[in-house]
Amino acid sequence: MQLPPKVTERAFERLSEIGAGAEGKALRVAVEGGGCSGFQYDIKLDEPAEDDLVLEGHGERVVVDSISLPFLSNAVIDFSEELIGARFVIQNPNATSSCGCGTSFSM
């Protein structure tokens, strides 16, 4: 059974800090072919579309399109702040391997 991805409190808080919802934007998490491992994440602020799954919290939205959704089943969308920088990260149980860049994976 496919479960939708989860979004952490920290990720929603970061969207609120950058004012995404106030501008009518959502964080789009998509999976595309390519990258060093076969698939890669495309994470950006975008307008929600009609066929998107919308995950809401703190007045903010994270959207996933219907094609990317199976690849993100049961994944966790988080925001990470490290010495090398701050970014949205995906913890994906479906990925069999991933790459050091953190945006590419294989299944």
TrEMBL record:
Q: Which GO molecular function, any one, fits this protein according to its record?
A: 4 iron, 4 sulfur cluster binding
Which domain of life, per UniProt?
Bacteria
Q: Which Pfam families match?
A: Fe-S_biosyn
Q: Name one GO biological process term.
A: iron-sulfur cluster assembly
Q: Name all Core domain ranges.
A: 6-102
- Please give the InterPro entries that the UniProt record associates with this protein: ATAP, ATAP_core_dom, FeS_cluster_insertion_CS, HesB-like_dom_sf
Tell me the PANTHER family matching this sequence. IRON-SULFUR CLUSTER ASSEMBLY 2 HOMOLOG, MITOCHONDRIAL (PTHR43011)
Q: What NCBIfam families does this protein map onto?
A: iron-sulfur cluster assembly accessory protein
Protein name, entry field: Iron-sulfur cluster assembly accessory protein
